[in-house]
Amino acid sequence: MPTRLSSPTTRRLPLAALFLALLLVLPGCAPKIKIFASQATEPLKEYVVDGEGPGKIALIHLRGFLSTEPAQGMLRSQPSAVQELVNNLKLAEADDQVGAVVVAIDSPGGTTTASDVLYHELTAFKQRTGKPVVAAMFDVAASGGYYAALPADWIVAHPTTITGSVGVVFMRPKLNGLMDKVGVDVEVSKSGRDKDMGSPFRPTTPEEEALFQGIIDDMAARFYALVQEHRHLTPAHLETVKTARVFTASQALSIGLIDQIGYVQDAFAKARDLAGLDPECKVVTYRRDMYPDDNPYNTLDSAEPYKPSLLGVDAGFVLPPRAGFCYVWEGGVTR
């Protein structure tokens, strides 16, 4: 019988897979291509979502993977979570009728820098204005999502919230196994021994592992210190938190990570109490579009969660995580 040869398409598949993988792990080197991308240029406007009395509470949504990068799409790009939170805080600060802020958090965390910037901006807002901040946790407020909640004067978790995951993870995709199968190699010329540490094209050496662990330990120590500064945990509870496990709302309350289990309305009530506002005061949010029958659960016009993009299209279902240090709970990341 004649020998059956592989079709040209079949022979090219490994190289196509390698090319795709290279695009995914080298975001800083590969060109960023956008198709029909446009910026969200409409200004934020105030909309009332609850209450009709004097005074205001500003409701700000913080959701999805926390990043300083905008979310890219086929037709437009959305401001990053950091940019949008700062935009909202500026409006709340400029309005003398706004007596308090409620930050609704639904996030597994994000990059270490984005999480820390959010923490810094909320802390600076409180210092400049004296306006109290209440955090309202929804499905997930873990790792960087919890980090961002730390400056709040009061933290309310939904009865079904998952929180905690206090720690750091360093994610780095590896291609050396795939490259060995395909028969492709990468030559590197470098100025110092550790210049290419973390390279996806070769295994990590024990020396590099130790260096990375030192960075992780340093970043985790900052997280632990901030948790202790704001939550004043017992030594035993702090050691439990350092395992980086996640907690249910009732577990988080018993260990001291949150102040109350309740709903967003309870967060509004606490904000009114802390600011001395009228019990029927308005709850306002800032959007670029008007929605009929608006209410506090509407997140349509808040910053879209960061999603990896390939040629301007959401490609979270095929892309591995980008390399980087993150305050993130991997179990809570959806793609």
From TrEMBL:
User: GO molecular function terms here?
Assistant: serine-type peptidase activity
This protein's UniProt keywords: Hydrolase, Protease, Serine protease
Keyword hit for Metal-binding: no
Give the Peptidase S49 domain ranges. Answer: 127-277
What GO biological process, any one, is recorded here? Answer: proteolysis
**UniProt cross-references to Pfam families, sorted A to Z:** Peptidase_S49
The family this protein is said to belong to: Belongs to the peptidase S49 family.
Q: Which NCBIfam families match?
A: SppA_dom
User: Would you tell me the protein name for this molecule?
Assistant: Signal peptide peptidase SppA, 36K type
